[in-house]
Design goal:
single chain; Hect, E3 ligase catalytic domain fold; 4 domains; 15% strand; elongated
Length: 493
């Protein structure tokens, strides 16, 4: 008789295995040698047997037995072969058809009809044990999720404590910086990873966080304060590192919206310049090893502007009017913001009513959840319908709870942000004029979509929000019109 030696351990139970693959291999080899058994091949697999179809080597072994390569299986224990009824049935069928003559273990063999019944009985117990264990594990996980507890090793930016995960003082600010930087939409994941590394960001193992790590980090909902498990959102009790709004902006960039083209060389103005005559993108080159020049690409072959080169140092002065156009008058900005502040404070009561409305919607969702549960218990809907409704309602509840958090920001916080923005808007021209290339690059990135040039001059510019509002504010001296624009600028660029 020829045997296949088969050993298995569950890949998800590395720390809880009774016997490792090495141990099982030693036991099988010693037993085969002592009993003088002919083993065709030893097969080792790190896969769970809780569900069928999860073990390709096991399936292949059964096919090879059917083809006649061997007619026996050698294992340390029957539960290494199957812990679900489907695969147990496959083994039983091979035995009934005569392809499999014996299953052998160091404790005994299974070859007769009575042995086959015993094997099925042991397999049934193993299968039931797997189901019971799975139910207990899932119940424990669900309880933790409902308490808002993170289930595993803390992600980058957090630390595990007995009370749950808490922000990591050494890394949390890098996570926040990464979300803010990437949300602008002008940087690749690879370049962001390099920037963070240069600034001192490291993984918990002290290594560089590469592109794939940064991408997973930016997609992780845990950073805005929720847990996501098997398609369901759960409110988390840990402190979020970013807002839901910022997280959503980053997801827009990740799926391709608002993404600027990748920059291959470090030319300060190249991403923002177009030819006003032909509409083609302007590019840049370096001459004599250090002089940077910009010119039209003449992609349509009919433009004479490509013969006119503009040196980068001259472009600095030509962009001064671009920032002058959005530089606010400090006196008018101060007066208009004071008026707006008074009105904003008077709206606090309305904000409280809005919060009460959201809370009422949450209570309505909870009633729907209870009603759906009762329908299922009274057999008025199927389990699938109940699960679908339950997931939809729970997701709506989490979204409303997040909205409640976002709406709870106080008036003082908003006014502080506007004061910072006002200071920025009243000095933006000076910052550009006196700043180094890094300052200029930051201002260009935050304020501009693009500018068009003709005859060596900037003839038109498209600004980003909220700088478009500053452009409109500078078109009038009406203080009440300025007050209206503050509604559109409640963030710090």
């Amino acid at each position: 008789m020829k045997y296949f030696g088969y050993a298995r351990k569950s890949s998800e139970e590395d720390s809880k295995q009774v016997q490792s693959l090495d141990t099982q291999k030693r036991i099988l080899q010693d037993y085969a040698q002592n009993e003088r058994l002919e083993v065709v091949e030893y097969i080792f697999e790190s896969k769970s047997a809780r569900t069928d179809g999860n073990r390709p080597l096991f399936t292949s072994m059964l096919e090879r037995i059917k083809s006649g390569e061997a007619d026996g299986i050698l294992v340390v224990h029957p539960d290494r072969l199957a812990r679900n009824m489907i695969e147990l049935g496959m083994i039983t069928k091979l035995k009934q058809l005569g392809f499999l003559k014996e299953i052998r273990t160091p404790m005994g063999s299974y070859s007769t009809t009575a042995d086959l019944f015993k094997l099925e009985l042991e397999g049934t117990f193993a299968s039931q044990y797997s189901r019971d264990l799975s139910d207990k594990v899932n119940a424990g996980l669900k309880s933790k999720l409902l308490r808002g507890e993170y289930l595993s090793q803390s992600p980058l930016g957090y630390l595990n404590t007995p009370q749950g995960i808490v922000p990591d003082p050494a890394r949390a600010h890098y996570i926040q910086q990464a979300f803010k930087r990437y949300s602008v939409g002008d940087i690749s994941l690879k370049r962001l990873a390099n920037e963070l590394y240069e600034q001192g960001f490291r993984t918990k193992g002290g290594r560089k966080a590469y592109r794939s790590v940064i991408e997973r980090m930016l997609k992780n909902r845990v950073y805005y304060g929720v847990l996501f498990h098997k398609g369901v959102l759960y409110p988390a009790k840990h402190e979020p590192l970013v807002s839901k709004e910022l997280f959503d902006r980053v997801q827009d960039v990740l799926v391709g919206r608002n993404r600027s083209k990748k920059q291959k060389h470090d030319f300060l103005y190249r991403d923002y310049l177009y030819c006003h005559v032909c509409g083609c993108k302007m590019t840049a080159t370096i001459k004599k090893g250090k002089y940077r020049y910009y010119y039209c690409t003449n992609g349509k072959g009919k433009c004479q502007e490509h013969t006119k080169y503009i040196e980068e140092k001259k472009l600095h002065k030509k962009f001064l009017p671009v920032f002058e156009a959005i530089n606010l008058d400090e006196e008018l900005a101060t007066l208009s913001l004071e008026i707006y502040a008074e009105e904003l404070k008077s709206k606090s009561a309305l904000q409280e009513r809005m919060q009460a409305s959201v809370q009422e919607q949450i209570r309505a969702i909870e009633k729907k959840l209870e009603k759906s549960k009762q329908l299922y218990l009274n057999e008025l809907c199927t389990l699938e319908e109940y699960k679908k409704d339950k997931q939809e309602f729970e997701n709506q509840r989490v979204d409303l709870q997040q909205a409640l958090k976002q709406k709870s920001s106080n008036v003082q916080t908003t006014l502080e942000l506007l004061q910072q923005f006002k200071k920025h808007a009243c000095t933006i021209q000076k910052m550009y004029e006196e700043g180094d290339d890094q300052v200029k690059a930051d201002l260009l990135r935050s304020a501009l979509w693009n500018s068009e040039m003709q005859g060596g001059k900037v003839v038109s510019t498209r600004y980003r929000k909220p700088y478009t509002y500053l452009l409109e504010m500078n078109k009038t001296r009406d203080i009440h019109e300025w007050r209206r624009w503050w509604d559109s600028n409640p963030r710090n660029p």
